[in-house]
Amino acid sequence: MTSSTVHSASDQALEKSGEMDTPPGSERYMHKVSVPPKQNLLKEFTATVKETFFADDPLRPFKDQSKSRKLILGIQAIFPILEWSRSYSLKKFRGDLIAGLTIASLCIPQDIGYAKLANLAPQYGLYSSFVPPLIYACMGSSRDIAIGPVAVVSLLLGTLLQNEVDHTTNPTEYLRLAFTATFFAGITQATLGILRLGFLIDFLSHAAIVGFMGGAAITIALQQLKGFLGIKKFTKKTDIISVMHSVFGSAHHGWNWQTIVIGATFLSFLLVAKYIGKKNKKLFWVPAIAPLISVILSTFFVYITHAEKKGVEIGKKNKKLFWVPAIAPLISVILSTFFVYITHAEKKGVEIVRHLEKGINPSSVDQIYFSGEYLGKGFKIGVVAGMIALTEATAIGRTFASMKDYTLDGNKEMIALGAMNVVGSMTSCYVATGSFSRSAVNYMAGCSTAVSNIVMSCVVFLTLEFITPLFKYTPNAILSAIIINAVLNLIDIQAAILIWKVDKFDFVACMGAFFGVVFSSVEMGLLIAVSISFAKILLQVTRPRTALLGKIPRTAVYRNIQQYPDASKVPGVLIVRVDSAIYFSNSNYVKERILRWLTDEEERKKAAEPTIHFLIVEMSPVTDIDTSGIHALEELYRSLQKRNVQLILANPGPVVIDKLHESKFETLIGEDKIFLTVADAVAACSPKKLVEEV
User: Fold this and answer.
1) What are phi and psi of 378, to 5 degrees?
2) Which of 31, 105, 439, 527 has the greatest count of CB atoms below 10 A from its CB?
């Protein structure tokens, strides 16, 4: 087939679809832009509210249902477990059991370390992996998310609480403030879900989150140098300069070589285990159980060598430690029985730490501040911690939902997370949320439902009830190694590189949040992240993009001449597209930018080219316009009249044309100056030129 034949067939198809200009001698039909029918004000307001807050149409399942059925559906909406449990099977339970045992082996040593980040006793980390997962399993809609304390939220909470109360001098007030902050974190999350305001968390951009998480990971890792190196006197500041000064300032007399050997050995073991898990997906359980094995071996080492007498720091006040989960049943039973037997140090008269009490979460309802000066402080800290926890959990839930191709109800998630933190605050827990590392292990282990969280919670329950004294010899070095190994996953270098390639402004937001956390503090990094995210939104709203359009050869399509260099300008006609709604915040800029386009074109115009007599504004991307925008168009019209240039509008949307009609702007420029397409507008302005081109 020849090239001319191909072009001929293509041209015929374009003519039939209306995408080519009308051939010479034929009459071009131009459809008039219609003004939408006038809507009832109440119906319009109702539709707007529904689209804003109820875009997912949550009441659809309730349509045409009996009252009893509606009641059942309502209860299932609050407690999704009542819906999916009806189809639960033994096969699903097998996957959930394996996943639950696996994430339990990962969460127990992590929780002990994360509690330290929040400046709380280790048992509070375990408490937070017992009650909250049970509440979430009943109310959450994600099948894969694993609930518990996480590093970033623990560090953030610890930093904000420490700014208000010193945990060393006022431990009781500090603990009560932690429970108060957790309570208000839950209230914040649940309120956002009930009022369907979840879109507010989207104001923290992905780039800012990447930078904030990376900076927090560096900060957390640096904080662990205290336990990793055996330093007793350590700065309370979190910025890198203060931390490194404290580390090297104590190098000659404060480092303990036994502690360093333990920490370095098991950190290497954890990193190797992680590498094995990444190289072979079938061995995902290796990095999951590595922290557990590290704690067992390091505790045994300290016990048999009495390294604590040589300066190796022991985990203090570990009132509730862990139950060895049955990843490999026989090995687990042997290990747990053996080490329970050999670690009855109190019977041998060895006094290393205080007596470790057994038992599950005690009630903390009476410890929450509902009045006094700490009420406001707890509220502020809770709102910040709750929003960050919600952002992390939502991102994790969406990621795994897309991987398994199911829908995640964001508002239900917020209510579930809020409910579990409110209940958690009353049962001696601090802020819990979705953990990415545990959720990834949960996913790879083959979880089917939230029952894996219930299994994990049961293992933690057994730990709290029966296995308390097992690891009271656990050195801080191994906890530090576990935390360092865990937070390394938060540093996403590939994501930062991609952000740099795609959007330089996003990269500025990413680096701003990163350096804010590393060189100042967690709250400063968070403030920078939010500020830059809002700055980007304001910049895009107040300075929308505009573009010059040209005609793509052999079509009636007009596109950006920068994107399509072959697109040709129409002599005597300037075509400008506005890529945003026109509001009070950008209306003046849009007017001035269009006039500047006109001035630039007139200055570049060659002597042989005709003078510009028509300015066409392509309004397809203009989704809305307010009174300031209409006023700006009126000013633009008057300015163009003084230059003998006619203003023409192309393809205004229903909202825009309705407002132009009501404001009489349509009458001002003339109804014959508003066209359905750019091609129609150009045909009306320069019909001779179009005929010549065709």
Assistant:
1) -65, -40
2) 105
pLDDT at 55 over 50: yes
Query: Does residue 478 share a domain with residue 333?
Result: yes
CA angle 265, 267, 268 (to 5 degrees): 65
**Ordered alpha helix ranges (H), 343-406:** 373-404
Residue 38 belongs to some domain of the structure: no
| Residue 511 in this model has a pLDDT that exceeds 90 | yes
Q: Report the relative pairing of strands 674-675 and 546-551 from DSSP bridges.
A: unpaired
Beta bridge partners of 671: none
How far apart CA 413 and CA 390 sit, in angstroms, is 9
Residue 648: enclosing H or E segment and its boundaries? strand 646-650
- Using CA atoms, how far apart are residues 420 and 450, in angstroms rounded to an integer? 14
Q: Are strands 146-148 and 433-435 parallel, antiparallel or unpaired?
A: antiparallel
Query: Cα angle vertex 431, ends 429, 437, to 5°?
Result: 110
* Exposure string over 94-106, b if 16+ CB within 10 A, otherwise e: ebbbbbbbbbbbb
Reported as half-sphere exposure (CB side, CA atoms, 13 A), residue 166 has a value of 5
Boundary residue ending a domain (488, 504, 529)? 488
Which of the four pLDDT bands, split at 50, 70 and 90, describes residue 116? confident
What global pTM score does this model have?
A: 0.74
Q: Which residues face 560 on adjacent strands? A: 549
473 and 573 share one domain? no
Residue 547 — φ and ψ, nearest 5°? Answer: -150, 150
What's the pLDDT band for 145 if we cut at 50, 70, 90? very high
Q: Which of 339, 386, 533, 360 minimizes the C-alpha distance to 457?
A: 360
For the sheet containing 546-551, what is the strand order? 558-560, 546-551, 573-578, 614-618, 646-650, 674-675
| Residues forming a β-bridge with 650 | 618, 675
Query: Which CA distances in Å does 171 have to 120, 166, 167, 226, 227?
Result: 9, 7, 5, 20, 21
Q: Is residue 177 part of a domain?
A: yes
Is the per-residue pLDDT at 316 higher than 50?
no
Residue 252 has pLDDT above 80, yes or no: no
| pLDDT attached to residue 264 | 78
Angle between helices 373-404 and 436-444 in degrees, nearest 10: 30
167 shares a domain with 98: yes
Q: Is residue 71 part of a domain?
A: no
CB 135 within 8 A of CB 416: yes
Per-residue pLDDT at 357? 56
Q: Do 442 and 573 sit in the same domain of this protein?
A: no
CA 589 to chain centre: 32
Q: What is the mean pLDDT of residues 82-87?
A: 91
Dihedral sign (CA 639, 564, 676, 55): negative
In the chain, what percentage of residues exceed pLDDT 70? 78
List of residues 6+ apart from 208 with CB closer than 8 A: 509, 510, 512, 513, 529, 530, 532, 533
- Domain carrying residue 410: 87-303+323-488
First to last CA, the chain: 24
Cα 107 to the center of its chain, rounded Å: 22
Report d(CA 319, CA 492) in Å as an integer.
Answer: 35
The reported pLDDT for the residue numbered 209 is 84
Residue 560 has a pLDDT of 93
Indicate the pairing of strand 573-578 with strand 146-148. unpaired
Distance, in Å, from the CA atom of 155 to the CA atom of 216, rounded to the nearest integer, reads: 8
- Residue 567's contacts (CB-CB under 8 Å, 6 or more residues apart) are 549, 550, 551, 552, 553, 558, 559, 560, 561
Please name the amino acid found at residue 316.
Answer: K
Beta bridge partners of 314: 475
Question: In Å, what is the CA distance from 17 to each residue of 14, 375, 555?
Answer: 5, 67, 11
